[in-house]
Design a protein that fits this description.
This protein is elongated. It is of the alpha/beta class and 304 residues long. The protein has a 5-stranded mixed β-sheet with strand order 4-5-6-7-8. A 3-stranded antiparallel β-sheet has the order 1-3-2. 47% of the residues lie in helices and 10% in strands. It contains 15 helices and 8 strands.
């Protein structure tokens, strides 16, 4: 069973506290997770931003919407209890509670559309798109993910047009930005264009240079062949190297991936897609255009 969206969780959440007791939100979360038979993997699943569990986020927003519609009360931080309006709703035995259902309550309309008139709220039509079933944070994360995917496509196009030698420098810059070695001068070196023995770069794994990582960076259009990976493995052996990274702007065939996973675990493969993801994550070749800060109420401030 997939993780239920936040609107699907609204009715079960309300029913879970219909005895009138005050519940901690994490207690209700565990009750709902058990009701939906969520697996440990589903409980650990994160939003695209990696900042919060998907299920926890959806329960929190289901709670928020029910509180704003006055179906739940929040007597203290991270605690909830059913409100009189919530009791009345349950006596009507609704098939479900969702955003469209909650729009019958003026307090909820004022929450989601504080600047709209009553007539505009009444005329609003709730669509059944995927976005409708996402929490606000999920919508923000999805938009962020879409922007980064589009950025990755543009970024890879720029990388493919680079001079091959400059591409090798970019790869070393990226590895250094990821924390390998110290400053650029002492951390890495790019080998000469000829006579490099199949090695395009060498970078220290740590600042002291206790171990070195050998790099091959190829700006290819077609997939890297398994023979190229085997040759790289042989070059590592000739240099008595323990670790190597093969980076390409294209991709690797399954045979090459299987070779590295099952036969030669000293080689890490990074294709064009993964390369651009890392460049975006570690700010290599990209610049921030606009920053948004998501804030929430600091309840400790008011309690103290």
């Amino acid at each position: 069973m997939p993780i239920p969206d936040y609107q699907t969780l609204m009715l079960p959440l309300l029913k879970a506290v219909d005895d009138g007791k005050i519940y901690k939100l994490n207690e209700v979360r565990e009750m709902l997770a058990t009701e939906y038979s969520l697996t440990p993997e589903q409980r650990r699943e994160l939003l695209p931003s990696g900042t919060q569990n998907v299920f926890d986020n959806r329960v929190a927003w289901a709670k928020t919407y029910l509180v704003k519609a006055k179906l739940l009360d929040a007597p203290q931080r991270a605690h909830i209890k059913i409100a009189e309006r919530g009791r009345k709703v349950l006596t009507e035995h609704p098939d479900s509670i969702n955003v469209a259902f909650l729009k019958q309550f003026q307090e909820f309309n004022e929450f989601i559309s504080p600047n709209n008139s009553k007539s505009e709220q009444t005329d609003a039509v709730t669509t059944t798109t995927t976005a409708e079933f996402q929490t606000p944070i999920e919508k923000l994360d999805t938009s962020f993910k879409d922007l980064n995917q589009n950025l990755a496509v543009d970024l890879l196009d720029y990388v493919k047009r680079m001079d091959p030698y400059k591409f090798e420098i970019l790869v070393i810059d990226l590895l250094q930005a990821m924390g390998y070695g110290g400053n650029r001068e002492e951390a890495a070196q790019v080998t000469k264009k000829s006579g490099d023995g199949g090695i395009d770069g060498i970078i220290n794994e740590d600042r002291l240079g206790l171990d070195k990582i050998y790099v091959q960076a190829k700006k290819w259009e077609g997939n890297v062949t398994i023979s190229a990976i085997r040759d790289f493995g042989g070059t590592l052996l000739a240099h008595s190297a323990q670790k190597g990274i093969f980076i390409t702007t294209s991709d690797f065939p399954k045979t090459a991936i299987d070779y590295c996973e099952k036969i030669d675990r000293t080689i890490i493969l990074i294709n064009g897609k993964r390369l651009t993801e890392l460049m975006i994550e570690f700010n290599v070749g990209v610049a921030a255009k606009k920053t948004y800060v998501v804030k929430e109420v600091d309840s400790d401030y008011f309690e103290n």
